[in-house]
Every structure is written in structure tokens, then in C-alpha cells.
Write a structure and sequence with these properties.
Helices cover 71% and strands 0% of the residues. By secondary structure, it is mainly α. The two termini are 28 Å apart.
């Protein structure tokens, strides 16, 4: 996609457009303060808050539950010695406590995904019809409002809390397809990895900041403020989003003429003007199913770790809760750095025309899935070596960041016009691990032995390995025939 297309367009458009298409001359369309990078930055903060709103409950839940009820199901292992520095800070205990057993807690944590899975494909479809700005904006706004209502729902009863979490899931479900849909109009092909990695890296940083911060808020204040603080920030972000962002470069108020022309000319042969969605060719597309399998496999490991890493650290490695928050966040900080860097590297490799798009996507997916599998299995075999366990899990999650410039944005390579819908389809399948993975892992670790946790890591690593190989065999980097305008005319 990088090489030949550029020279063809230059000859068609004449001399005056040449600088706009050649990225090596940044003076023409600077990245700094440009409309497309402003969009990436605002999206970054949006996804930051989105993940903060998603994971804060898993931290607050520890404080919401009466101490004796959470132990009904899983016993703490005594394989490793107690490992905590005693902190003599008086802990705030004013928050309301509820007597929810382990199964009920599982339902509360899982309920989010039941809402999330429903709006994936409708989100992608709606974004292609009404634009991603309103959908993403109101998705995060709705999630923020329901987060503000969480303490009230918990007081009313567990059914209300599950319903509110499911509604939050409905709101968040439209966000990734809406963002992909917006980038199909905003991201020049050779800047895709950079722009998308910046915007989606917010999700990892949101996890990094909200895990320890939620722990500190619970520790010094009260668990209800976890929901009030993050919910209020989400509403604040919404005002900036609605004011500063527009769906396409054509409708943007303050974009420079040079940047608008640069974006539109770089995308002119890639978008379809067809109004109807070619559902059948989409569902028969093997490159799409390669993304589905990779996305499902990656998320199995991601969600298993996201929901159960604090448990592993507490029950096996026996860190106390405060250390746990910071150590649980460390792997996601590594992942965040990796996402930002790999986005730059991927586009550098493509832009200098050393590597084709499909080669970059496959290589980055292989690194981002096989690497984590190896280190995850290793983490289960190092006994009570705390430093090494934390290091291996951190390396495992960090390497996963390569996938953001691999399968994760491949939707935009194969069908820019339908990227939101394709992401809706792949994310629907990829949400299943969030619902099933932690439940299976919980059932496999009743006694919290090291052997049981090794099994959990084995399963995750095997699924990762399969996804990586499948993607490497069947992925594509070219715009598919059914995704461009002429296809429908030929068919008719």
C-alpha cells in the first residue's frame, strides 16, 4: 500500500500535490497541532477514561464486600511466604459493605460484557450511517452517567448494580467501532499505525492509572468516590469532544486547507461510495476471519490477566492490596509504552517502503502474541520469586502492545469504508473471552495452588499461539475488492 500507489497519484494530480503525498516533507502538513493529531489526542483521553470506568469496579469491589464472604469460594494458597511491607496508615472504613459471595461478585464483574457484546455490530453500522463523533461521544457520556449511579444501584440491590453495569457495557460497546469508523475518514494510509496507536493507547494508560488510583481512593477516602471522580471526568471530557471534533476533514471548522487536501487525496482510491453494506462478501472474507481469530485469542489472555492478575498477586504471591494495585498496573504501563513505540516503528517500516503492509501486520501480530505466550507460561514456573513473576507478567503484557499495529488495525487496511462494521464483528467475538475466560480461570483455581494457575496460563498461551499462526497464514494488507465502489458495479 505504501509504495506504488503514491507515485501513481502524484502523476495524476500534477506537481502541486507532490509535497502533500510525500511524508518526507513534513513542512507541508505538519503533525504538530494538526486536526488529525488533535483528534488522536482527544480520543486518547476518551479511551483513557473508558478503561478507567471499566476497571474501577474490580478494585472497588474488594472494599464493597464484607471480608468473610469473598473467601467462600477460593482459599489463599500458603505456597509462598507472606510478602508485604507493613503500612501503618489508618484505612478508611466508612464505605457501605455488602454480603455478596464469590459467584455474585463474578456476575457483577461479568455483567459489563453482556451489554458490551450487544452493541458492537450495531455500533459499527450506526457509525457508518450517522458518523462516529456522536456515537463515541454519547457512548462515553452514557457510561460516565451510569458510573455516577453505581453507588445508588449498589444500595438498591445486586440486581440494580448488575443492570447498571450492563448498561455501561452497552455504552462502551459502540466506542471502538465508532473510532475505527472515524479513522477511515481521517487517517492517511501511511499514518494509520501512528494515529490509531496514539488513540487506543489511552485504554492501557487508563488501566495503569485507575488500578492504583482506585486503590488509593478506597484506602484514604471511600469506595463511592471511585465512581464519582471517574464519572465526573467522563462528563467533562464529553463537552470537549462535542466542541472540538468533527466526523470528517470536510466538516472540520479549523483544519488547514493543506491538511484537508492531503488527507482526502491519500484516501481517494480507498473508500466506497456505496450506501448499502456488502454483508455477504464481508462474512465470506478470509482476511476478516483471520482478524477475528487473532482478536479472540489475544483478548483471552488480556481479559484473563486484567480480571485475575490482582487475585494471582494476592493469593499466590501474597502481596498486600496496596502494593497489589501498583504491581497489577505495571504490565499495562509496559503495554502502553509498547503501543506508542510500535505504532511509530510500523509506519516507519511501511513508509520507507522496506516492508509491505501485510508483512508489517503479520510480523507485529506474531511478536505480540507468541512473545506473551512464552513469558506467561514461564511466569507459572518460577515459584515464589516475586521479582521474576512480576517481570515475566510485565514482559508478557508489554509485548502484547505490538498487536495494536498488527491485527488490531488491519480492518482499516482491508476495508476502510467498512472498518467500523468489521471491528464490530471482530470485537463481538473478542468479547466472549471477557465473559468466559475469567469464569473458567476462577473454576480452575478453587484451591489456589501453583499447579492450577499453571493450567490457566497454559490455556491462555495455547489460544494465543493458535491465533498468531492463523493470522500469519490468512491475513491480507490490501483493500479487498468488495470494499471499493467499483465492485458493486461489476457484480451488477
Amino acid at each position: 500500500m505504501g509504495g506504488p500507489g503514491g507515485s501513481e497519484m502524484e502523476t495524476e494530480e500534477g506537481e502541486d500535490r507532490t509535497p502533500l503525498l510525500k511524508e518526507s516533507q513534513p513542512g507541508t502538513v505538519p503533525a504538530c497541532c494538526s486536526a488529525r493529531y488533535n483528534l488522536a489526542l482527544l480520543a486518547f483521553f476518551g479511551f483513557f477514561l473508558l478503561y478507567a470506568l471499566r476497571v474501577n469496579l474490580s478494585v472497588a469491589l474488594v472494599d464493597m464486600v464484607e471480608p468473610n464472604t469473598s473467601l467462600a469460594k477460593n482459599a489463599t494458597s500458603n505456597v509462598c511466604p507472606e510478602h508485604s511491607s507493613t503500612i501503618n496508615v489508618p484505612r478508611n472504613t466508612t464505605g457501605e459493605k455488602y454480603s455478596w459471595d464469590a459467584d455474585t461478585q463474578g456476575w457483577i464483574l461479568g455483567s459489563f460484557f453482556y451489554g458490551y457484546i450487544i452493541t458492537q455490530i450495531p455500533g459499527g453500522y450506526l457509525a457508518s450511517k450517522i458518523g462516529g463523533k456522536l456515537l463515541l461521544g454519547f457512548g462515553i457520556f452514557g457510561t460516565s452517567v451510569f458510573t455516577l449511579l453505581t453507588p445508588l444501584a449498589a444500595n438498591l440491590g445486586v440486581g440494580y448494580l448488575i443492570a447498571v453495569r450492563a448498561l455501561e457495557g452497552l455504552g462502551e460497546g459502540v466506542t471502538f467501532p465508532a473510532m475505527h469508523s472515524m479513522w477511515s475518514s481521517w487517517a492517511p494510509p501511511l499514518e494509520r499505525s501512528k494515529l490509531l496507536s496514539i488513540s487506543y493507547a489511552g485504554a492501557q494508560l487508563g488501566t495503569v492509572v485507575s488500578l492504583p488510583l482506585s486503590g488509593l481512593i478506597c484506602y484514604y477516602m471511600n469506595w463511592i468516590y471511585v465512581f464519582y471522580i471517574f464519572g465526573a471526568l467522563g462528563v467533562l471530557w464529553w463537552f470537549f469532544w462535542m466542541w472540538l471534533v468533527s466526523d470528517t476533514p470536510e466538516t472540520h471548522r479549523s483544519i488547514s486547507h493543506a491538511e484537508r487536501e492531503y488527507i482526502l487525496s491519500s484516501l481517494k482510491d480507498q473508500l466506497s461510495t456505496q450506501k448499502s453494506v456488502p454483508w455477504r462478501p464481508i462474512l465470506e472474507s478470509l482476511p476478516l476471519w483471520a482478524i477475528v481469530v487473532a482478536h479472540f485469542s489475544y483478548n483471552w489472555t488480556f481479559y484473563t490477566l486484567l480480571t485475575l492478575l490482582p487475585t494471582y498477586m494476592k493469593e499466590i504471591l501474597r502481596f498486600d492490596a496496596q502494593e497489589n494495585g501498583f504491581l497489577s498496573a505495571l504490565p499495562y504501563f509496559g503495554c502502553w509504552l509498547c503501543i506508542i513505540l510500535s505504532g511509530q516503528i510500523a509506519d516507519y517500516l511501511r513508509q520507507n517502503q522496506n516492508l509491505s503492509t501485510v508483512c508489517v501486520r503479520k510480523c507485529f501480530t506474531l511478536i505480540g502474541m507468541i512473545g506473551p505466550a512464552v513469558f506467561l507460561v514461564a511466569a507459572g514456573f518460577i515459584g515464589c520469586n516475586y521479582a521474576l513473576a512480576v517481570a515475566f507478567v510485565t514482559i508478557s503484557t508489554t509485548l502484547g502492545g505490538f498487536c495494536t499495529s498488527g491485527y488490531s488495525i488491519n480492518h482499516l487496511d482491508i476495508a476502510p469504508s467498512y472498518a467500523g462494521i468489521l471491528l464490530g464483528i471482530t470485537n463481538t467475538f473478542a468479547t466472549i473471552p471477557g465473559m468466559v475466560g475469567p469464569v473458567i480461570a476462577k473454576n480452575l483455581t478453587h484451591n489456589n495452588t501453583v499447579g492450577e494457575w499453571q493450567t490457566v496460563f497454559y490455556i491462555a498461551a495455547s489460544i494465543n499461539l493458535f491465533g498468531a499462526i492463523f493470522f500469519a497464514l490468512f491475513a491480507s494488507g490490501e483493500v479487498q475488492d468488495w470494499a471499493v465502489s467499483g465492485y458493486h458495479l461489476h457484480r451488477n
